[in-house]
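Side project, low priority. Logging it here so it doesn't get lost.
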Amino acid sequence: MSTPATPTPPPIRRVLFGRLPIGERAFVTDALRQETVGGALLLAAAVAGIAMANSAWRDVYESLKGFVVGPAALHLDLSLETWAADGLLAIFFFVAGLELKRELVVGTLRERSQAVLPVVAAVGGMVVPALVFTLITLGDSAARAGWAIPMATDIAFALAVLAVVGSHLPPALRAFLLTLAVVDDLGAITVVAIFFTDNLNLVPLLIAVALLVGYYLLQRARITTRWVYIPLALVIWALVHDSGVHATVAGIAMGLLTRVKPDADEDHSPAERLEHRVRPLSAGVAVPVFAFFAAGVYLDTGDLGNWAAEPLLYAIIGGLVVGKLVGVFGGAYLTARFTKAELDPSLNWLDMVGLSLVSGVGFTVSLLIAELAFDDPSEQLDISKAGVLLGSLVAAFLAAIILKTRDRAYQRAELEETT
């Protein structure tokens, strides 16, 4: 008598956006709380900048932006606006580097199967907006310099939107947005380093690279004193700035070289300690100050009428709203469609639509790229800033509608479970 055939077990399906481990959950919750508060401060600073630029204080605002401080002998006699963009944003990208290193080593990106979804979604969220921008500006060669403007996601603003409209949304969705933004930040700074570097000076760059190697070796040697690292970081930043590479690259490089695994006698790794100390400075000071200086575009009535006919304006808005939606959602959907992955049963693909739209809130890095792409002052720069502001507002508004609907659905589900 023949033995019955053993039934073939069903293929293991990898659940996307599943419940996070306890340690990961605590870290993400702390990061999200600080970024959400930072988003509120960022909004207040941006509104203050716009208000001053369009008030009787406009001359004071412009004088403040152009006020030069710093030692000329070291080529660091920079305006306050430049200090904000090159100096303070280096702190922001240092935190981004720490986040990315942590995700790659001990977080959700350490396993290829878990990394593929946010990475593909982030890449789609960078490539498709750039394509949308390029298609809209095909007939405007001058405007095409801003092709990278709609690629970025502002995590602080995006999380602030989620905090306002999504108190009952699953925490894993916020964690996914945080991971997406970390990968997005790496892509943005790579674009800045490669495509927006002029007059490269190799000598200071090579010295900076050598000092970065020294930073890495100090990490390996378990040196922890801040009085070694702070001067070293300042020198590395100054050398990168002098090399012609955008100085924010120094921040993300040091973040990526920081040790993220704690030793047996350590409660927290150096990366965790640094992130805990530096993130409030980044979210509460660095990014809001940059926003105050960068967002202050003068909105003259006559100019607004002329800008309405400019492809550049619609290219940025289209990239942030349509490009991000198609790129992020399409990347996530295709990953789930063609790999052994599926959404958690408690979630809906409409959640991903809202999340894709909120990723179109591209404020901080988008404004930075706009300033690198166009001369300051210039009409194109003003149009770009207006496009970033309008595109981010439209993306946030549409995302809020969808996510608020989903939030109510999750709230009803929670009530049904408790009754």
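Brief comment: The mean pLDDT is 84.
Revisit when time allows.
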